[in-house]
Amino acid sequence: MSDSIFERVWKLGGAAGRIAFSLAGAAGDAAINATKLASLTKAIQSLSELKGAPMKLGQMLSLQEGMFPPEVQKAFAQLRKDAEPLPFDHVVEIIRAELGERSNQLMDIDPTPLGSASLGQVHAAKLSDGREVVIKVQYPDMRRALRTDLAVLRTILGALSPVMNVPMGPVLKEIRTRLLEEIDYAHEAENIRQMRKLFADLDWICIPEAIAELSTPTLITLTRVRGLTHSEAAKEDQSLRNVWGKRILEFIMRSVFEKQLLHADPNAANLGFLPDGRLIIYDFGCVKRVPEAIAVNYKAIVRDLLERANHTIPSHLKLAGIHMRSGDPVSHSFLEPILDFYADTFPDREVGFARSPDVYSRLWEIGSRDFFESRNIVFPPDILFIHRTFGGHFGNLRALGPVANWNDFLRSVLSQIA
Q: Are residues 399 and 362 part of one domain?
């Protein structure tokens, strides 16, 4: 984050231009030529180097399976890798400046970060009482950079508008709100407190605890809960992967339909897996309150899908805030390919989660069809981070490879939710 404001705006503007060039005409076209793909790859590399809001936006897009052609999606996936970390001596300076004498409680800080993301990086340490912790340190000047970045992100979002099929004004407002929350680590600590309380009745969910006396708005210290990474978990026995997969799905369902508070950053790095089947959830910077209308009607839509009551889905979508600009419900003909995809991907028998080899190409085909009709559909901005979570965990579950009768499992979870 050492660039001057001018340099940052210049780099962001260049990245925005390359993205606009690369995705021009992408809507409705499943292919992208080599020149445009090379330009997009260079733009994505720029977002990674800039960290902050540009990298966060790119990571969000990388998790939206089916939004872009497969080769574009693969290019955006580069942003899921760790960012270049701050030098350790700089990290120590930040810790001392933020905590003062309280920093003496932190012992054996590991100079190699556990991870370096778009907004900050994480280091393992021990407390003077022997407890293992992790310290998340925000990159310097992040709030100042965010104000600058958001102005330029309008250009990037404008380039994506034909592909995302949603109005950019409300989308940018929603992104701005979430990012401002995400750089406030005091807000994250409150998210953790609420989520630990809401999910205390589910003993298979582990949420690290924030240590208030060693946290500030730009630094947060958490108890360390060690678990397998997503890639490590994907190599474990099938029976264990089945348990973990069901628990990821149940966590999402309960978050949206029951608790109405959703951990909305589905990066695989935010999941940990324990050998006894428990699921660890990390990083609560991005948490989305789910409006009642969406919680109630999305739950009804899942029931409709399970009962093959497709005729009632358009009315539930409308009540959730998704309808034609005229106010009419979304047409059955528009929804039909989506419903067929669900029926084919989740048949009423035991199968691997979305294991069809053409699953992503089908998602892209669905997303790019009937382009002009989709442009006339109204979406509430609230669904941006909700659908982002669905899309991200779709990929996480598919990579984990659990096997189940997913229809039976969904029915079982719905029966337990009031």
A: yes
Distance separating alpha carbons of residues 20 and 22, to the nearest angstrom:
6
Q: Is 311 exposed, middle or buried (0-12, 13-18, 19+ CB in 10 A)?
A: exposed
Residue 205 backbone dihedrals phi, psi, to 5 degrees: -105, 125
Is there a single domain that holds both residue 258 and residue 351?
yes
Give the mean pLDDT per block of 10 residues along the chain (418 residues): 52 60 51 66 65 59 55 62 80 96 96 86 95 95 73 62 57 78 94 97 97 96 97 98 98 97 93 98 95 97 93 96 93 89 90 86 67 73 88 92 97 92
d(CA 297, CA 256): 11
DSSP3 helix / strand / coil % (the chain, rounded to 5): 60, 10, 30
Answering whether pTM is above 0.85, one says no
Same domain, 115 and 195: yes
Q: What angle do CA 207, 246, 269 make, to 5 degrees?
A: 45
CB-CB contact of 376 with 325 (8 Å): yes
| CA gap 348, 354 in Å, rounded | 13
